[in-house]
Amino acid sequence: MPEGPEIRRAADRLNQAVQGRPLEHVYLPFPALRRYGTRLKRATIQAFTPHGKALLTHFDNGLTLYSHNQLYGLWENTRIGAPYLKGRQLRLELGTAGQVVRLYSATDVKFWKTDSLKHHPFLVNSGRPTHSSIILSWSSSDLIFWIQTCQPLASPNAV
User: Fold this and answer.
1) CATH superfamily of this structure's domain 4-137
2) Cystine design at 48: which of 11, 22, 24, 150 (Cβ 3.0–4.6 Å)?
């Protein structure tokens, strides 16, 4: 089962591959996700951010993809046209001019309006990202996004 550090490393790899580039290819074979296809065409991924064992994919169109890999889920970044992994169920594929990211076999995958994430049961109950996930090489864009979207931590010395 992927743990926090593995999800952090996956987010780093995915950000490096497609962050900030417009999507040119969207494939959503998972029936529950298909209706979002037209909204994702030409959207840009702002950031992949880990939240415990979940991964949030923030788009510039007001949508965020929540994915929790559970036991078998896996994110892959690869070149366009690369063969699909055998023994896995493709949930989604997002491609830019040179790279493709794919999510396989995750059981909890849903699109949310970004401003509604504060109501997501897992995110509400799990709190903020852990200090270890912050220390594990947050990119500057991840940190900026997190600062802009999260409430500041209360300080015991605050007046």
Assistant:
1) MutM-like, N-terminal (3.20.190.10)
2) 11
